[in-house]
Design a protein that fits this description.
Blueprint lengths: L3 H4 L5 H14 L9 E4 L19 E4 L6 H4 L9 H8 L2 H13 L3 E4 L3 E4 L12
Parallel strand pairs: 1-2
Antiparallel strand pairs: 3-4
Amino acid sequence: MNTRSNLDMRSGEGGKEIQKTFTRCMFRLPSPRNQYLFNGDWVDRGDCGVEIVLYPEAIFLNRGNHEATDVNSDVDTYAMCFYKECMQKYDREIYDLFSEAFAACPIATVINNKFFVVHGGLCHKYVKIS
């Protein structure tokens, strides 16, 4: 298994790239005092989908349709699908672990008891509400 020292990615190329993205686009790196909510489809948007897990104390993730395995493994449709990214950087085991984690991600978040945030592209076959 090629897990690159237990997914210590902050010092790798992907970690540096995601830090540049935060600095360039959002002005501040994630931290407990500077938190972000990504509302689905945070994979299949370039080659830093894996690195989104670098800041577990500061990035919260809602599930979108691209977090479903039949979408994020579609190598014919997406130039850099999440499956390809995992296979280039790590291996199938890492992809499967991410897929398990994606299935456990919430489909919605309520912020300050005021804002209900949900991804608009979820299909009924990806979500079971009981």
